[in-house]
Amino acid sequence: MKTLVLSILSLFVTTSIIAQNPQGAVTQKEKTTVYEDYHANGSVAQRGYLKENKPHGIWESFNTDGELVMQGRYVDGQKEGTWLFWQKEGLIQVEYKANQKQSYLRFSYEESYVEK
After folding, report:
1. So where are the chain's domains?
2. Which residues of the chain have pLDDT under 50?
3. Own/partner long-range contacts of 15-23 (Cβ < 8 Å, ≥24 apart)
4. Which one of 24, 58, 67, 98 is separated from 41 by 20 to 30 angstroms, measured CA to CA?
């Protein structure tokens, strides 16, 4: 009985420590792995998917308030397609093909212009 109580107490303490430690977490979901990294305040900093230990699929980054600041897509570890970066001054859109930057557009919130 004493061993059972100590085991349960140990499990509780370990679970509490893990829950309070905002570090990256990896969970298996079918053939891909869900990856999350956390800010010191416990909010999600990054979320994405790994396939064979490489980023694959939608990848997102968040600020400490939980607002989306970056979104893009990886294909077998390489940036592909449209990536968006939200900044205080405006939105940046970058197009990638096989991890190579193809185009860069900057949209300003203050003025209506596009910088290429």
Report:
1. 23-115
2. 1-22
3. none
4. 58
DSSP structure string for 22-73: ---EEEEETTEEEEEEE-TTSSEEEEEEEETTEE-EEEEEE-TTS-EEEEEE
Distance CA 77, CA 99 (A): 8
- Contact between residue 46 and residue 59 where contact means Cβ atoms under 8 Å apart: yes
Other CB atoms within 10 A of residue 94 CB: 17
Position 15, amino acid? T
How much of the chain is in helix, strand and coil states, percent to nearest 5?
15, 55, 30
Could you report the per-residue pLDDT of 50-73, keeping only the tens digit for each?
999 999 999 999 999 999 999 999
Give the DSSP H/E element, type plus range, for residue 89.
none
Tell which CATH architecture fits domain 23-115: Single Sheet (2.20)
Q: In whole angstroms, what is the distance from residue 21 CA to residue 23 CA?
A: 6
> Hey, what are 63's tokens?
């600020």
